[in-house]
Design goal:
The protein is α+β, with helices and mostly antiparallel strands and about 400 residues long. The chain has two domains: about 20-270, 4-Layer Sandwich (L-amino peptidase D-ALA esterase/amidase), CATH 3.60.70.12; about 280-400, ArgJ beta chain, C-terminal domain (Ubiquitin-like (UB roll)). The chain has eleven helices and 16 strands. It has helices at about 55-65, 85-105, 125-135, 145-150, 205-215, 250-270, 290-300, 305-315, 320-325, 360-365, 395-400, and strands at about 20, 35-40, 45-50, 75-80, 110-120, 160-170, 170-180, 195-200, 220-225, 235-240, 280-290, 340, 345-350, 350-355, 370-375, 380-390. The strands form three sheets. The protein has a seven-stranded mixed beta sheet, with helices on both faces. β4 (about 75-80), α2 (about 85-105) and β5 (about 110-120) form a beta-alpha-beta unit. α1 (about 55-65) packs across α2 (about 85-105), α5 (about 205-215) crosses α6 and α7 (about 290-300) crosses α9. The radius of gyration is 22 Å and the shape is globular. The two termini are about 20 Å apart.
Length: about 400
């Protein structure tokens, strides 16, 4: 069950961004598993993608089509990742784009494909292509929640967020995003797909810069299990139906902050819905010599199976945290200044256990559904915050039975 996470009751429509969904029975029948987002000619798009060397066919095709500057539609399927499928998988991704183009009145290279699900299996093209044919029949600006449900795999709830930004003189900018992700979550990016749209009129290069800034503060700050997928992608789309906005405008930082806020809510939702998660954990590292050092320490702790299983058990075995900090790739690490706390319960100071530490107090913190592990390295003024989850029996069951 997701940790303090509920499906959104409503997502704000974005002028010019229309969704349609369909059921292709990719993994099993009875639920929509295809979604298409169609954008107007005025739209600009930006994307960030997985850095996995085995990036899936849809990722390669999406990157190539995005580079043309002509993209007008996103085509997403769940249930099958079309990854590790070689040249045939590439051909399948291109065929899906061509079929979607026909259905939507676009050229094939104006469609960006995205897939998520089982790796190493061909797409069921005999079911997928006919389902794509009907996507142009019921495009709606208010279908964001339908799309959020269609892209789910092991997610337990659909994930979405909206913001309406007032930038003065009666001008308002709407941002809405959806995401999927639950397991195989790690930065650069994660097993996640995220799609965010705004009605603002923004040049592609400015949108790209904003998306990268937002992603670095959100999707690249989460980890469920330390695994990075072959299919990760995050897209930002500006429909151009509303207010013109540029990086040189005084209101630009507020737009980037709103975009980051939407991305961060989606990213945290992915961790809250982590496979088998029972705790949502914030890792706050301060006193680092550099941003990179702070992130390395945070992720070393977040990726420790011993720390994560202790979190699941509610066991304040803080020695596991200490050991993880100590093996982080930090140059010339001096432990004499390190402090560790669980929420307001101080455990370690100056590299040693505090005399007033009481295990019962730490256990009470770890019984909460969410809490913070605070680590002060005492060697600088840089910091990092990342979000992770515990590792439970249910995580093992879900992944042991994933293909069954």
């Amino acid at each position: 069950m997701a940790v303090n996470l509920h499906p959104p009751a409503r997502l704000e429509p974005v002028a010019g961004a229309r969704w349609a969904t369909a059921d292709a029975a990719i993994k099993k029948p009875g639920r929509d598993d295809i979604a298409a987002l169609v954008l107007p000619e005025t739209a600009t798009l930006a994307g960030v993608f997985t850095r996995n060397a085995f990036a899936a066919a849809p990722v390669r095709v999406a990157e190539a089509h995005l580079a043309t500057g002509r993209a007008r539609a996103l085509l997403i399927n769940s249930g099958n990742a079309n990854a590790g499928t070689g040249a045939a998988g590439h051909d399948d991704a291109e065929a899906c784009c061509a079929r979607a183009g026909d259905a939507l009145g676009l050229a094939a290279d104006q469609v960006l494909p995205f897939s998520t699900g089982v790796i190493g299996e061909r797409l069921p093209m005999d079911r997928l292509l006919p389902a794509i044919d009907g996507l142009g029949d019921d495009l709606r600006e208010d279908a964001w929640l339908d799309a959020a449900r269609a892209i789910m795999t092991t997610d337990t709830v659909p994930k979405g967020a909206s913001r309406v930004l007032d930038i003065g003189d009666g001008r308002r900018i709407t941002l809405t995003g959806i995401a999927k992700g639950s397991g195989m979550i790690r930065p650069d990016m994660a097993t996640m797909l995220a799609f965010i749209a705004t009605d603002a009129d923004i040049a592609a290069e400015d949108l790209d810069a904003a998306l990268r800034q937002a992603s670095d503060a959100s999707f690249n700050c989460i980890s469920v299990d330390g695994d990075t997928s072959t299919n990760d992608a995050c897209m930002a789309c500006a429909t151009g139906a509303g207010t013109a906005l540029a990086a040189s405008d005084a209101s630009w930082p507020r737009f980037v902050a709103a975009l980051t806020d939407v991305a961060r809510e989606l990213a945290q939702a992915i961790v809250r819905d982590g496979e088998g998660a029972t705790h949502f954990i914030t890792l706050a590292v301060t006193g680092a010599a550099s941003d990179h050092e702070a992130r390395e320490v945070a992720f070393t702790v977040a990726h420790s199976p011993l720390v994560k299983t202790a979190c699941f058990a509610g066991d304040p075995n803080w020695g596991r945290i200490l050991a993880a900090v100590g093996r982080a790739p930090v140059d010339d690490f001096v432990i004499d200044s390190v402090a560790i706390a669980l929420d307001d319960v101080a455990i370690v100071a100056d590299g040693e256990p505090r005399r007033d530490y009481a295990e019962a107090d730490a256990a009470a913190v770890m019984a909460r559904p969410e809490y913070t592990i605070a680590i002060d390295l005492g060697r600088g003024d840089r910091d990092a915050t990342i979000w992770t989850s515990d590792l439970s029996y249910e995580y093992v069951r879900i992944n042991a039975e994933y293909r069954s």
